[in-house]
Description:
The chain has 334 residues and is of the alpha+beta class. The chain has helices at residues 25-101, 108-114, 136-145, 165-198, 200-204; strands at 5-11, 18-24, 215-218, 221-224, 231-234, 237-240, 246-248, 253-261, 265-273, 276-286, 293-294, 299-303, 313-320, 323-325. Helix content is 40%, strand content 24%. The longest helix is centred in the N-terminal third of the chain and has 77 residues, at 25-101. Residues 105-130 and 146-162 have low confidence and may be disordered.
Amino acid sequence: xDKRNVTLLLVNNESGTTNKLVVSLISLKxxxxxxxxxxxIFVAGFIDYLGLMxxxxxxxxxxxxxxxxxxxxxxxxxxxxALENSLERVKIxxxxxxxxxxxxxxxxxxxxxxxxxxxAGQAMEEYEPMDQRVSNExxxxxxxxxxxxxxxxxxxxxxxxxxxxxDYATLVIRIDKAVKETQLKEQSVIELWESLSERLSLLNxxxxxxxxxxxxxxxxxxxxxxxxxxxxxHAGLDIAAAPGSPVYAPADGVVIFxxxxxxxxxxxxxxxxxxxxxxxxxxxxxxxxxxxxVSKYDVISSVGNTGRSTGPHCHYEVRVNxxxxxxxxxxxxx
Length: 334
């Protein structure tokens, strides 16, 4: 057994006396070891306390940030929905403008007669080339590549996760798609504007309003003739209105007929150029003459019940190169 001792000399500076303390080496080692352990435990506890305090502060910050992000997410999602709805309305209106102004230089008679019917294999509302669309596999891959939220650690009392990454991934994809469609529609509208600027005369001469204020009682197409009880093509629209209501020119043009017809009664016909003519039948009064130039919104006649008619209305026809087409395709305000 180790019986070595350690002698400690304690000197009093004032009196100069010296005291001697003899301690065994083993006892000294035990005391020093115990002191080191106590200090280590205290330091570890203090560090752990600081860590918990900082973690609580961080959790509080993350909780506040989580609430804020949820609100921002809802706001962004609402604005994105409004953007998508606006894009849809712009798309429909742009397609209708292209149809009326014949921007694509396709067969005007066929396109206007058939309306907005798509070609074989083409979806009704598609305007983005299929080879540029994001495939389902790519969208799934983007979802997988998007950073995932870590699970909640109950031991460390972490706050709940923010909205799932799947929601963020879907929102990101929707935003990217909306931005891409916005760029495409912007380019499409720019091209449309350039074409319309070059064709201002064509636009001013193309009917695009309802000629009388009233409700449509009979549309373009085959129907039972009320006078012959046989199926017959109704070559225009019947717009019911009070007798004497004004009938407006739907575009610029020249009057080519203003007289009485046995079937149409008092009839007005306008040549708008580019092969387009319009007819307005069953009028009570006619206010224009043959050869007169008229502008859009000029009053050309008044609603009546002349000719073969069952009640006061304006019978409105649009003909392209002499062929009757559906006038609804030439009404933007309906």
